[in-house]
Structures are given as structure tokens and as C-alpha cells.
Amino acid sequence: MERIRHYFEKTTQLTDEDWHIFSSKLTVQEFPKKHLLLKAGQTENYLSFIETGIVRMYLPKVEKDLTFAFAFENGFVSGYDSFLTQKPSHYHIETLTPTKLWRLTYQDLQNIYQETKIGHQIGRLAGEDLFLKKSNRELSLLNDKAEQRYLNLFTEQPQLIKQIPLQYIASYIGITPQALSRIRKRIS
Hints:
It is built from 9 helices and 8 strands. The strands form 2 sheets. The protein has a 4-stranded antiparallel β-sheet with strand order 1-8-3-6. A 4-stranded antiparallel β-sheet has the order 2-7-4-5. The chain has helices spanning about 1-10, 15-25, 80-85, 105-115, 120-145, 145-155, 160, 165-175, 175-185; strands at about 25-30, 35-40, 45-50, 55-60, 65-70, 75, 90-95, 100-105. It folds into 2 domains: about 1-145, Jelly Rolls (Sandwich), CATH 2.60.120; about 145-188, no CATH class.
């Protein structure tokens, strides 16, 4: 739980009272590898901070799933569009490794906004984190070649990327597993 406070205190100062209110709403949950945190058609009720683990977001397809995001420890994960609108998600969120999450429900976040002086800033920081990841991903897809997208992911989380199956990485950077194998051979 202290990782979350440290994350927020990189950009804002929390009073002990505000932290107590915020932290009292958090619940910790551990999930095994390959657990669906959110299924398409379900409404996202959680904003989660990853203490340990790797999570992927993907569109389930008949022929092959389309992975569009990964989330790593010390960051947030949520079907954020569904969370904000409280409407069903169009995608799945799945753990790729055993994962420990600190979770906050939609209603508890609304209460934090009302009860604390810093609540809106906490919500904004979590939302900004998720937005920036999404924005960087979109820009990379538009501007970078597949090899650079792979290198970006590898640079971002070198110790963790080894735990992600290659077919998910290939899907994430928009190429076939065979093309990813060629890229990996070329840069190694």
C-alpha cells in the first residue's frame, strides 16, 4: 500500500488524514496467472494499482486475440472507459503472471472525491497515468516501425517483458510472431 502513497507523493503531498481516508477504501486482491479481471460485456468497477504482476488488455477475436495494452507493477490498470461511463467494456483484461492489485471501487472513488481535500487530484493523477500510456501507444503505432515499438516495450520493462508470451507481444506491436522472431534475431 505504501507504493501507492509513494506514487502519488512524487507529484503531490498527501496529508495523513487524506491518506487514511483513501487507504481505508483500498482492498488488496491476488489473482493467479491467466485470470480474467474483466470480460467484454462486463462493466468495470475498479481502478487498480499493480503491486506485482503483468496484465494485458485485448479484444477477443475468433481467429486470434488483439492485444492492445500491457500494464506493469507500480502502475494503474482499469477498463477506464467502462469505469468512467459505467457502461460495459468491449475488451478483456487478463493477468499474465500472478498479480497483486490494490483496488478501489467506482463508488469508493466518488466518496473520496467528496470526503478529502486531495481526492480529485488523486483521481486525476491515476486518470492521467492511464491516458498517457494510451496516448504514447497510439503515437507509437502511428510513428514507429514494428522494431522500434518492440524496443520501446523492451526498454520500458526489460525484466518483465521476458514473462510475456511472444504471440501477445507480436499482437501488441501489430505483427506476426514470425516477424517478431526476425526482429529479435536482428537486434540480438
